[in-house]
């Protein structure tokens, strides 16, 4: 069993690197395949694969190495980087394109991913070194770090594939879907993603057509939600960790944070969808504030996977994240269909998001839990 745990941890560390390399290379080759549709589609698929596995691998590393009282800040740093990257991308992409051409954006951003991987590999070596192996795993069960390194280096690809198959067979899939807490996470992830993806896709058009902002103003306004998210994340994470450190029940903390993440955007969307005669910039402020406050989810939902199961945190995030990707396909298309049919931004964009935010809150408060779940007898929890 110890050998399987060692292999799985090392594998997930590599998965994170492979995921980043995959989407970085797929991004960098876009200018090369831009005139060849199958190649362009393949590059987008590879980006999706790379981005799909990386959050789960990062979640696993956090779950295994960060104590409960510091978990919210760790998750905020890792996943809050999405907002930081969005701000930098929106700010730097236009001048890069203007001065170096559109192809340069893909080359530069792809190269940055490769540089990150080299830095991550160097950090692992500095942090753990040769003495402790890649992740300092399983010392007490093997008796010699040298034996671990030797065993790992001598494994054949056939053995690694066999270990992967055995690891997947050992996953208690049935137990996951019998848990009300897991279903609460699945639905919450779906609801949060619906609001996030639809707003990300349609708010620039809303600002331009409904609020009569010009394209330049709409572009600058698009920077505000991720910028606000960075600010809110820096407040929400210490807030959650301090509550837990002071003895507040972890489940209660996660419920408080996720409720803020859902009720806040729902409230501001309600105010924005009602004709109160507000000037455009007040509506922009409302929507920006609501989307920024939704970042409390990093201290709510996104920590719960690790709270309930350190061993299976990555798999649980993979499950909820898969369901959470559905609104990116269905929600965006449905919003466009409703907008064409009703010509109403309230009905097409705001009402569905408000519905999911509020029902997501109700389900979360009723069924969410951060208590460690006994998904398998062999799962160690502390």
Automatic annotation (TrEMBL):
| Keyword Cell membrane found | no
Task: Report the protein name in the record.
Answer: Major facilitator superfamily (MFS) profile domain-containing protein
Question: By its UniProt entry, which InterPro entries does this protein fall under?
Answer: MFS, MFS_dom, MFS_Na/Anion_cotransporter, MFS_trans_sf
For this UniProt entry, what is the primary localization, expressed as one broad class? plastid
Its biological function? Answer: Probable anion transporter.
- Species assigned in the record: Sorghum bicolor
PANTHER family per record: ANION TRANSPORTER 6, CHLOROPLASTIC-RELATED (PTHR11662:SF243), SOLUTE CARRIER FAMILY 17 (PTHR11662)
Domain Major facilitator superfamily (MFS) profile residues, every copy? 1-371
The answer to whether keyword Chloroplast applies is yes
GO molecular function per UniProt: transmembrane transporter activity
According to the UniProt record, one GO cellular component term is: chloroplast membrane
Q: Where are the transmembrane segments?
A: 20-42, 74-93, 105-123, 182-203, 223-244, 256-277, 283-303, 315-339, 345-367
- Domain of life according to the entry: Eukaryota
The UniProt keyword set, sorted, is: Chloroplast, Membrane, Plastid, Transit peptide, Transmembrane, Transmembrane helix
Where is it located? Answer: Plastid, Chloroplast membrane
The UniProt entry lists membrane topology as: Multi-pass membrane protein
**UniProt family annotation:** Belongs to the major facilitator superfamily. Sodium/anion cotransporter (TC 2.A.1.14) family.
């Amino acid at each position: 069993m110890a050998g399987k745990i060692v292999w799985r941890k090392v594998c997930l560390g590599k998965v994170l690197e492979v995921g980043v390399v995959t989407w970085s290379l797929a991004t960098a080759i876009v200018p090369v395949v831009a005139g060849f549709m199958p190649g362009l589609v393949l590059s987008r698929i590879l980006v999706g694969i790379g981005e799909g596995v990386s959050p789960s691998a990062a979640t696993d590393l956090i779950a295994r190495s960060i104590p409960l009282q510091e978990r919210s800040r760790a998750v905020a740093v890792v996943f809050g980087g999405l907002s930081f990257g969005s701000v930098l991308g929106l700010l730097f992409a236009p001048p890069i394109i203007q001065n170096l051409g559109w192809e340069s954006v893909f080359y530069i951003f792809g190269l940055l991913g490769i540089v990150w991987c080299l830095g991550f590999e160097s950090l692992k070596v500095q942090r753990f070194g040769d003495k402790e192996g890649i992740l300092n795993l399983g010392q007490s069960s093997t008796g010699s770090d040298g034996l671990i390194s030797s065993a790992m280096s001598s494994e054949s690809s056939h053995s690694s594939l066999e270990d992967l198959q055995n690891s997947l067979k050992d996953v208690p899939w049935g137990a996951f879907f019998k848990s009300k807490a897991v279903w609460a996470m699945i639905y919450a992830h779906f609801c949060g993603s619906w609001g996030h993806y639809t707003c990300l896709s349609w708010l620039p058009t809303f600002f331009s057509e409904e609020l009569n902002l010009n394209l330049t103003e709409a572009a600058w306004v698009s920077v505000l939600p991720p910028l606000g998210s960075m600010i809110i994340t820096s407040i929400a994470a210490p807030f959650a960790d301090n509550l837990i450190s002071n003895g507040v029940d972890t489940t209660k903390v996660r419920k408080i944070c996720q409720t803020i993440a859902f009720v806040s955007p729902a409230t501001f969307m309600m105010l924005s969808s009602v004709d109160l005669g507000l000037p455009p910039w007040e509506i922009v402020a409302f929507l920006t504030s609501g989307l920024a406050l939704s970042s409390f989810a990093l201290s709510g939902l996104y920590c719960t996977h690790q709270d309930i199961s350190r061993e299976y945190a990555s798999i649980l995030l993979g499950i909820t994240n898969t369901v959470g990707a559905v609104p990116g396909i269905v929600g965006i298309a449905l919003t466009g269909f409703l907008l064409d049919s009703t010509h109403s931004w309230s009905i097409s964009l705001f009402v569905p998001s408000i519905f999911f935010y509020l029902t997501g809150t109700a389900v979360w408060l009723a069924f969410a839990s951060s208590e460690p779940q006994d998904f398998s007898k062999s799962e160690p929890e502390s």
